[in-house]
Each structure stands twice: as C-alpha cells, then as structure tokens.
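Workshop exercise sheet. Pairs work together: one partner reads the sequence aloud, the other fills in the structure field after running the prediction. Swap roles for the next sheet.
Pair: D.N. / O.F.
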Amino acid sequence: MGNLTSGIAVRKPAAVNSSQTLADPRSAAKLAALPDDALLEAVQKQTFRFFWEAAHPVSGLARDRCTAGVAPAPDDELVAIGGSGFGAMALIVGVARGWITRAQGVARLQAMLDVLCRATCYHGAFPHFMNGRTGATIPFGRKDDGGDLVETALLFQGLLCARQYFDAAAPEETRLRTLIDWLWSDVEWDWYTQGRKLLYWHWSPNNGWALDHEIHGWNECLIAYVLAAAAPRYGVAPEVYHRGYASGADFTNGRRYCGIELPLGMPFGGPLFFAHYSFCGLDPRGLRDRYSDYWVQNTAHVHIHAAYCADNPGHFAGYDADCWGLTASDDPDGYAAHDPAHDNGTLSPTAALASLPYEPQAVLKVLRHFLREYGDRIWRDYGFVDAFNPSRGWTAQTHLAIDQGPIVAMIENHRSGLLWKLFMAIPEIRTALRRLGFSFPDR
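Structure field:
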C-alpha cells in the first residue's frame, strides 16, 4: 500500500495493550438488583471487555471466540472479520460511554486498520478468518479459503460508523478516515455477481466459485446488498437487489405463527440474528421498501420467538415468557442455527438481549431472569457466555465475537440510537437506500 498514488503509508503495527482492564466486573446477583439503565450500562460494559481486553495483541482485531476465564493462547493468531466489524462498533460505544478515551479508541482502530490494509484480500473482500498478526488468510473450510462477502459487509458496517464518528481534523483521525476510505473503495462488489443479477458469498483463487453460495432470501445479508449498492467504485445496480436478494427463496412470507403475521422470511422467521446483524447500523424504525416495513418485520420476528418459547411445544426445560432466545450459537453438539423450526433446547443470551430495541420491557425481564435464575454460571468476565441448554444440563464456556457484538450495539441503539444515527447519516448509504427504493425518516 505504500506504493499507492494517494501516498498513504501503512505503519508497522504496534503491540496492542491488552493488559489494561476496565473496572472490576460485578457479579450476577449485584447486577440483578440495579435499576434498568444502570443494569444496561453494566451489561454493555462487561460485554465490551471481550473486544477491548481479549482482542488480538498486535492488531486489536476481534478474536472469533475465547474461553470464559481463560487467557487466549500466545500462539492463537486467528481473528474474525465480521466480528471485527462489531468490534469497531463496540469501540465507538466505549468512547461515547467513557469506558475508554477517544485517543484509545482511535489508536485501537488504527492498529486494526494497519493490519487490514496489508492483509490478503480477494478483489477487495476479506476472508472469514485471518491471522491477526500478518493478515494472512486462515481457511474457514476446505474450499472456503478466499473472499467472504458477508463477513466483509459486517466489517464495513462497523468501519463506516467509525469513519462517521471519528470526524475531528486531528492527524490521527484524518488518517483513520483515509484508510477506511481506501479499503471501502477497493471492494469489488460487482465482481461477486459473476456478471449476474445477485451477489455470491464466496470466491477463492484456489477454488473459484466452487461453493456457489447465492445470497438471496430474507436473512442476515441485507447489509451486504445495501453496501454493494453504496460502493463508491465497484457498486451494483438496484436490480441486483430486486432480482437477486428480494426475489429469492424464503423472501416473502405473510403467514401467521403463534398468532403473529410475519411479512418476510422462512417459517417462524429463522434465527434471531436476522433481526440484529444488518440492523446494528441500519435503523429499522420507519425503514420501508416495496416489500416490507422493517420495524414491523423485526418486531414480529422477536414476538414470534418469545411466544414460541412461552408456549414451549417441545417441553424444553427453562423456556417460558421470561426465558427465551434462539439464534445461531454454540450448543451441546457443536454449533447450529436455532429457531422455532430447529430447536434443541439451547438458549442464547444474545438472541434476547440484542432484541432490546424491539421489545424493551420483555427483554429487561429476560435479562433479570438470566441473572437471577442462572447467575454466574452464564454471567462471566466478558458478559454472558454464548449459550446454555437447561434440558441437557449444558452451559457454554465460550464467548463469540458475532454474538457479543450485537449485544453492545443493539443495547446502545435502544439507549441512544448512536450507531443508527451514525450509519444512517453516511452519504453513500442514504443514496444507496433511495436507489434501492427504500424510504426512511430523517432523524
């Protein structure tokens, strides 16, 4: 990158200070007694520690996961690209809430960008996993060893919010914005269409398009299509959204589940991260296009999940009106996407907590129930563990970046709307949404 005509130079990454810890975490019992706002502050702050203290020691990029109470191994270099996008959002929240200083947030983002700028990319897109020290790709699977467009989209959702937030004229913040602009303009979204009318998830120089994973149907990938339409150099036409994603399998629904009509998506709506990942940045309040009102869509999805767990047709232990949350997470058999149509009794705290903006009073009851009923078995040093299954007496010992990140981001969106305001103010995003036929209020 030092040879670019823009003259941007990438510095050798400095070691990230991961030894600095935030205030001592509170026990579950103490948390449960706090007033609502203090409780949300404490949950956010302790969850933020995953991205601040457990990040890669050189780049500060987010680890895919860590074990509760166990320091990452010295030779563990693996970081997650999508998780690092959530990490960038968490840094913004950390600065805004005063958990870290603005200078600390900028320095951490600069360390992240220094490695991203020299990392191996695939027509501008990043892999799912990479080495946090060198930027080399770490294959996600046998043929998944190249660009991952959805992970790249989650990364840029966070980086573009950071570009919007760190807007000072100081050299450090100017450089940060310049690096983000360079990476953002370099992603060849149009390459990932194969010249067709939809986006494809993966491409590899070793395996080409062999995975053949089309991105369509209602799922977590709306953010990828919005960013592809917003791209400054290699964008896609609106028909790619309408003829690809929005016309795909499992896009429209209109049926009722648990007495609640669901506009879009698979039966019961699928796992709850569909209502979270794209909407850490996209503000669903009043966001509409020809297909749906996205606030109605996401609140219906959350209500269906809550009603399903309250009804508990599978007779799983623990399920009730104050104990719900089905999404993709670790479970007793490995990792799976959980929803009412694919349920094995595994509850994931992120599923309920990241739904806070959609149903705040119900989610607060779930939060207090988790703390009082399960306590320090599921509340650990970096917030809640990834999942637990009362029917099988199983509790995860892990924290995952893609589950911890939405907790911090969506709680903040409920409390202040900060990330929604930042993302929806980005000029390229506003233009792209209008090109795609969306309407949205000015706030």
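Discussion prompt: The CA atoms of residues 2 and 9 lie 5 Å apart. What would you look at next?
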